[in-house]
Design brief:
Distance between the termini: 67 Å
Strand content: over 45%
Number of strands: 60
CATH architecture of the largest domain: Sandwich
Number of helices: 3
Structural class: mainly beta
Shape: elongated
Number of domains: 5
CATH topology of the largest domain: Immunoglobulin-like
Radius of gyration: 44 Å
Length: about 650
Amino acid sequence: MAGKVVLLLWAQTLSLARAQTTQILVKPPWTPPFPWDWVTLTCQSSGSTGATTWYKDGQRWGQQGRTNVTVIMKGTYQCDRPGTGLSPPVIVSEDWLVLQVPAQALLEGDTVTLRCRGYWNSTVTSVSFYQEGKELGVFPDVTELSLSPLQLSHSGHYSCRGKVGSWGWRESPPVTVTVHGVPLSGVSLSAQPPGGQVALGDSLVLSCTGAVGTGPLSFSWYREGSGAPLGTGPCLELSQAGDNDSGQYRCRVSDGDSVAKSDPLNVTVLVPVANATITPGPLSHQVRAGDPVTLHCSVQVGSVPATFTWLHNGQEVARGPLLELSDIDVGHWGTYQCLATNQLGQDGHRVFRALSPELALEVTPGSPWGTAVAVNVSRTLLFLLLLLAVIGGCHCWHRWEWLVLQVPAWALQEGDTVTLRCWGWQKRTFTSVSFYHEEKELQVVPNWTELSLSPLQLNHRGSSCCKAWVKPWGWKESAPVTVTGHVPVANATITPSPLSRQVHAGENMTLHCSVQVVSAPVTFTWLHNRQEVAQGPLLELRDIDAGHWGTYQCMATNQLGQDRHRVFRALSPELALEVTPQDKGTHRDIAARKQQESRPHMPQHPPEEGEVLYTHVVVTKRAGASPHATTRQDPQLTNAELRGPQGRPREPGDIYGNVL
């Protein structure tokens, strides 16, 4: 154990004495040493392995090559090692009185003892200690002075005075005490959000901390490949992170005496998907019936993981970067697009989407050996089939339609600009296009095939179609499509009201959050004293106590827009809940009150037009929830028709999907 202590002291001495690379280690570890202590001097240096030369009072002394010697005479000793030079001197004293200090690096915060010793361990009494000539105190029967905790102000010159045996009053030569600040170590980096990953345009904060160290600290920040400092504080904020902010970051900490660097922290800026494309091109592709086709979707930029969704004529048909179409037939005719998606941010709350341009796939007959007779027979059969379709009033042949009214393949939001376009089979020429909403003609556009709805309003919801003259087949009408305008959440409220409510301790209470106008899906978050406590439309408070006291709010959220990038929230007014002590009613009264409160809450008046009602709630228990609050999770989708005034059915489009 003593050997380990000696090595530790030597390591500290080397770390603090930068000017010297050769040092003398004293054992016992006190300075100045007494010869009657049988002092051992050890010559050590960093990185040197050559022979040692000893000097006493400036003259070569002893046998060359020995790394340690035992000293029994006073004098000034030094050692020399090749390549590292001469060590600082060590003075072995035979004075009448000596003040000894530990032969080690003295660090701020340590406990240090100074001891006053007489010649050949003579008895010393009436000892006084001095710092810079100023008396610190008189200690009749004590020969040691303790400095604890050691501070930088303790640095200076010390001496002692006392009666040594029968030789009378003596005073020691001064010794120097130097207190060093604790060297820096354990510098580390942390990031918020954790992990060092940040979405493009978001902010990231890096923090630098030192586990061990004293004194005033200075900081500097560096990124690999950049020589100039990025900051000089304990924190570095990357606001609106860009592509060039990715890389390895370090911080450098200094206390004036020592410097420490942190391990590198890798920062990754996550990039939204952009410029989705389909290969093979071009945007118009012709294939033969029966041939296989493989389409590949890729993005020019975008951080992984990314997902891919395939759309055929605006309808989702597959997922993944590849779409394999085997045994092509006329059912594959139409336009193809791929939708690339990635989720960024600390909890993946920011969703980005990129929609590729349309690829038009045209299917041609696949029998290259066909003769003129076969071609004529095929044309005859085709004519007969088309004639039957016209006579029967059928609007489609095989798997295509004469006219198709297309709407954008994303959620339409109230206030958007939406274009409806009327397409003909095989790009047939058609004119005199009319657009209809709920069988009512909206507009006749002789030379145009598109209708713009701007701004989109709730009365645009419902069934729409188009009608046109298709050469040479006459008037044709598309199948109806449904236009749905989604509405942001608004007017969140909590029931039961009023906004200030008083309940007794021990009672149960259920709060219900609802919104007046909304498009599903909707999420609900409950706040207690502005802190999130639960999610779901219902908040059940069981066995109420003083911890439930405070204000409650619910926040309703839905995501709308082409790529659901627009997030809407509605925050309810605060409900103030005051908990009063349990009243002294009978057990029967309390049980009756709890039984009445446990009954389902029924609205006191019929729902008004525009309100959203939620039914068929499935109750589950969520792990990690508040011990006093349970929520209803794991929703099941329930469609409920909202009746209009006097119980009349609403117009189409007023059926809401209930997601809890």
